[in-house]
User: What shape does this take?
Amino acid sequence: QTLDFVAGEYKFTVRATHMTDGRTAERDIMVEMVMQRVPSITLGFQSPPPNGKFPVTEEIKIRGTEEGEASDVERAYNWKIMVYERNPEYSAEAAEALANDPENPYTVDEFVYLDRTDQFDFADPSQFEASPDSPNLVIKANALQPSKTYKVRLEILLASVTGYSDLTVETAGLAPRNGELVVEPMVAAFDADRSLSAPGWKADDSPLTYEFGYFQYNAGGD
Assistant: This one.
């Protein structure tokens, strides 16, 4: 419980110990405790997609909801976007070289979230609807790339401390493409059986489903 701490800077340490041979490793993190409550805001989608992936051609609406008793503390909001990409510090050669060395394992993650906020303009209404006074965000159509995993971060800026809340956004691949609709035979009597097929369709997300339909065309009519 952070209520057990007084204001100040603390160093937290974790030590991992191998159960068999007793080898250990440690990691430290510095944490500053302040005497100010940071509002807890949960992010969620207004209309989450059934399959969890958003088409980039549609708007994505994110709503921030303050948990517990609402606080009237003065604050501002700021948005950031991270993208799940290959880690520039990852070395495939080093990973392969240490793959069979239990005494010195390679611990650099191949993929990580990288801050790409500088590639977006939250003041551009063609990309976003965002305000420093609101915990809500609208991501406009085509502001994101297909087949990507993003982490959208809302920063809550107070006078002496900053809190944040994250939400993962996964975009769907491009729409199905490069396919055909084929009818055989193309020329035959009106009462002849015909076979329709849709070969060659490709998509980033699979499997695909197919639905055939028709409408009656009247020459010279509506």
The first helix runs from residue 92 to 97.
